[in-house]
Amino acid sequence: RLSFREGVSGPWTYSLRGLDGKVLREYVLNGTTWSWSKDLVYRQGQLLAAIDGSGTRHFTLDHLGSPRLITDAGRNVVEYHAYWGYGAEIDTACGVERMKFTGHERDNQCTAGMLDYMHARYYNPTIGRFLGVDQGNGNAEAPGSWNRYAYARGNPVKYVDPDGRVIDTVLDIGFIAMDVADIAGTLFAGERTTRTQWAALGGDVAGAFIPFATGIGAGIRALNRADNAVDALRTLDRAANARDATVAIYRSLDAAGNVQYVGFTKDFARRAAFHLRSKGIEIEQVAGLHSIPVADKRAVEQALMEIHKLGKEGGSLIWNKINSIAKANPKYAEELERGMQWLRQMDYPGVRP
Asked: What domain count does the chain have?
């Protein structure tokens, strides 16, 4: 979106956004006069500060990414926010900052009609429901996905929804916060930090971006207790390498919504242009499967083929001609199960629990 206004008579505020949709700068249009309003500062996607004409305000976030404590440059408390489970504020007093529950923009925060802008959809924190339907299909075998207006599958403590389409787990965020607190406590006590503390923090940061790699930092700390710090750092190196060696899983739908092609690629934009030019079909990334380790790419692709079936088998995959993994392969069952694990993680339709 480009702009918003508080109420029906307030000035329009226009936003300059980054590629991820987060607000970087705001301008206010009052009549015919434009003026700079504020800048927002992020690190690793987490909101750090807001800068406007009154100075700089710093944000302290909880494990969900919701601003709780806002302080000025002199460490004075400017605002404090507490939320009910689904994001409505416990204290309904109107504040200055619009960045609220899980770091999303809150419109009409001073009225009963407050809504959170979550990019793909608007969310009502008072009732814990989206105003628009989920773009993805529900999974008949995953009851949490049946209500396509529901937020975070009914578990707003464990999951967040960064863009209104795909939920993320916040477990790694908790690990990172624990690591930071550990390091801060050591420094506050006037002691020297250790390589293991920093390696654990780095491991958990890496784990936040690598599917199925939660708790790398915990593994590093365990290795240290076994006097194996060298192996711990190697674990971190492997995590970093795994982050770089990934592919995106994509699919193509026909006019009726049937999946007619599945595949994987390291360069989605280039592959999309190729398919449009050569086959006349459009492809889309499968939600939640945009960063799959290279070692698992064929397992996930074959799992999708098992669900939708090749055209020659009576399925809907008319553009896929052969299986990604031959069914005569001795490791077929093992690879298929590994691919299915990825799909279960995302509640992909048609996957057995």
From this structure: 3
